[in-house]
Design brief:
alpha+beta; OB fold (Dihydrolipoamide Acetyltransferase, E2P); five-stranded mixed beta barrel; 39% strand
Length: 113
């Protein structure tokens, strides 16, 4: 009986340490790819963007709130990108489900010239 009293606290401590370490490194490492194309659709409610890539593949991406979106080195929002704009997207293919955007560069020249 005494042996079990020592085993249970040890197992509880081991479980807590394991959970703590697993939360510090969630998921698999990121695998970042880059693709260029033309925007075909933007879903502002679902936070997704679809493009027709330069090699003629239709692709859709999830756009998280922390994605970096720029035009002419200026920060912009997803709502500032328009359909038919040329874009370059860096995305994480290691995420389960839809590919997740890391950054979007809107390659359409700004109109403030």
């Amino acid at each position: 009986m005494c042996r079990y009293k020592m085993t249970v606290p040890f197992l509880m401590m081991f479980l807590m340490v394991t959970v703590a370490f697993s939360q510090q490194n969630p998921g698999s490492p990121k695998t970042i790819k880059t693709i260029s194309g033309v925007v075909t659709k933007i879903d502002f409610v679902g936070n997704t963007i679809s493009i027709l890539s330069d090699d003629q593949h239709q692709m859709s991406f999830s756009v998280p709130e922390n994605a970096i979106i720029t035009q002419d080195t200026q920060d912009i929002g997803l709502m500032d990108i328009k359909e038919s704009n040329p874009v370059t997207i860096q995305y994480d293919i290691a995420s389960p489900g839809m590919d997740v955007v890391e950054s979007i560069i809107d390659n359409k020249p700004s109109s403030h010239e």
